[in-house]
Amino acid sequence: MAWRGNISRSLKELRILLCQSSPASASARTFVEKNYKDLKSLNPKFPFLIRECSGIQPQMWARYDMGVERCVNLDGMSEPQILKALEGLVKAQGATKA
């Protein structure tokens, strides 16, 4: 999982939007609880933004160079699927520079 250490080289910012209590956001909350500390330690100066809002659908937004953003809807995804989606956003960095 070497891509985890490349997050700060590939992205400018990562935002995770979730609800504090809804079942739809349960996997997103689990993802944050299990992975935030490790991801932050590998990318200490990178802005990982966790936004909690009542009733919101869980989403993950990646911001790249030149203000390009990509969104992944996390509703219905498991924690491993969310990790795979993050990996896809990190590796998609090269595709945004075309």
Describe the structure.
The chain is an alpha+beta fold and 98 residues long. 35% of the residues lie in helices and 21% in strands. It has helices at residues 7-10, 26-42, 79-91; strands spanning 13-18, 48-52, 59-63, 69-73. The protein has a four-stranded mixed β-sheet, covered by helices on one side. A hairpin with a 5-residue loop joins strand 3 and strand 4 (69-73). Helix 2 (26-42) packs across helix 3. The longest helix has 17 residues, at 26-42. It is globular. The two termini are 25 Å apart. The mean pLDDT is 92. InterPro entries: NADH_Ub_cplx-1_asu_su-2, Ribosomal_mL43/mS25/NADH_DH, Thioredoxin-like_sf. Residues 20-93 form the Ribosomal protein/NADH dehydrogenase domain. Belongs to the complex I NDUFA2 subunit family. It is a peripheral membrane protein. One of its GO terms (cellular component) is mitochondrial inner membrane.
